[in-house]
Design a protein that fits this description.
β1 (about 85) and β2 (about 90-95) form a beta hairpin. The chain is an alpha+beta fold. The chain is elongated and about 80 Å long. The protein contains six helices and four strands; from the N terminus they run ααββααββαα. It has a four-stranded antiparallel sheet with strand order 1-2-4-3. It has a domain at about 75-160: Orthogonal Bundle (Arc Repressor Mutant, subunit A).
Length: about 160
Amino acid sequence: MAQRNFFKDQVTNWQKKVDHHKENQLINPFSEWEGASHRARLDKNHPEYGKPVPGSLTEKRGKQANDHVFGEILDLTMTIDDMGDPQPDGTKTITFGKLFKSYLRVSNKVVGILLRARKRNYVAFEGEMLYQGRDENVIITLLEVPEDTRVWEYIPSFMTGGFE
């Protein structure tokens, strides 16, 4: 009798795994499984369109990546704020060459972070892309340092005296 219950439990557990796999295949847009196409397609105007399934590892990794990029942007804007030349309109400016030389020690991704910072309206500069050597004299204008509650996560506690 115990042997029979053991096999019944094994079959039940296996069926749960099969059902879980089917559910995952239904939401996988790259699945070649024939049943995958019956999942409802979201309209481009739907608020969930282009976003990962809530609670998924993809959503978690996306949030971690977004936080990391925010930390890089914060570091970049603080560097420009420290090293930039004050302007009459309250902004600060720095040449790409000066920023590249000083910031290179901190990050080798300065151009990518500048592009992301510009997309979020923290900095402004002419041109689509900046290249070392060619664009040394391009002026980068700091429009604002990010104001966000996440800022405190990126400032080491020794700088805040332990107050957060």
